[in-house]
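User: Please write out a complete single-protein record containing the residue sequence and its fold in token form, without commentary.

AI:
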Amino acid sequence: MKKVTYFHVPTCPYCRQADAVIDELVAEHPEYAAVEFERIDENVHPEIAEQYDYNANPSMFIGKEKLYEAHLFEQKDETRMHVEEVFRRALEDEIVNLPIDNRG
């Protein structure tokens, strides 16, 4: 499973929207609870934020690959679609590495 690096600012309405979507998706898909989100407040840790290529919050990465970056006037359904894809990408290894049933 891959860790998600999540840049946010606590006062950002789009970040609060993404947080709510994360909570909703975990409630609907318990397997998503296993995904680790490293939440980085860019105001507290600008030295970390400077190492990533993004312009808006929230932004989510796996490694240095940007998977999601919010935009102005983004609606909740669009945020949900992007965040769900982040969960899927973070869990890809888990899906690929499921044990094969060797009954025969």
